[in-house]
Each structure stands twice: as structure tokens, then as C-alpha cells.
Specification:
Strand order of the largest sheet: 3-2-1-4
Strand content: 25-35%
Helix content: 25-40%
Oligomer: single chain
Distance between the termini: 28 Å
Largest sheet: 4 strands, mixed
Number of domains: 1
């Protein structure tokens, strides 16, 4: 977790200025990346042109990490509310989607 706290803000600052506004569609996925010798999960949301909308580094791949990622991605003004979110078949997305709908964030 120390690596996440150390590198995520720096990555966020460096990449944030390159983000573009999105359209109604977004695709989310996660992958494993090695950060300073340790494996982490990189959650990311991309638009149809493969431009990165937002990302989130996490030590775990679970429901809480997915929910934190979606809350972070939807909280910023440069992101218009997507009409369609395409996710892979990761079952960890179903519960956060339902919770965010109840909280009126989706």
C-alpha cells in the first residue's frame, strides 16, 4: 500500500492534464502491472478512441477497489456521465454498480 500512496498522486498529476472530455461510452478493465518490483492492479477507463479517462492503482482486485475506482472516475468535472459502461466479465463490478446506482452516482 505504501507504493500506491507514493506513486498514485504523482501519476495522477502527470497524466491529468492530458485527459480529454468523454462521450457517452466508456470501457473499463484492469490489468496487472509491476511497480517497483511489486505486482499491483491497474484499473482504467478508456473511451472508444482508447484515450484514458481515469485510472486507479490498487494492491487488491476486489469489490471495494472497483467501487473506489468508479467513484474516483465519476467525481471529476472533465468526465461527462457515460451512458454506457462496458466492463469485462469480472464479477467484482456487479455489486459496486448496484451500490453506485443506489447512491445516484450512476
Amino acid at each position: 500500500m505504501r507504493l500506491v500512496h507514493q506513486y498514485e498522486p504523482e501519476l495522477d498529476d502527470r497524466v491529468r492534464c492530458d485527459y480529454k472530455t468523454t462521450n457517452n461510452f466508456c470501457r473499463v478493465d484492469e490489468t496487472d502491472v509491476k511497480v517497483k518490483g511489486e505486482w499491483m492492479y491497474l484499473y482504467r477507463a478508456v473511451d472508444p478512441k482508447e484515450n484514458t479517462i481515469d485510472f486507479y492503482l490498487s494492491e487488491s482486485r476486489d469489490k471495494q477497489a472497483a467501487k473506489r475506482f468508479f467513484k474516483k472516475a465519476l467525481a471529476f468535472s472533465y468526465v461527462s456521465m457515460p451512458r454506457v459502461i462496458t466492463a469485462d466479465k469480472n464479477l467484482d463490478y456487479s455489486i459496486p454498480f448496484q451500490e453506485l446506482i443506489k447512491e445516484k452516482l450512476l
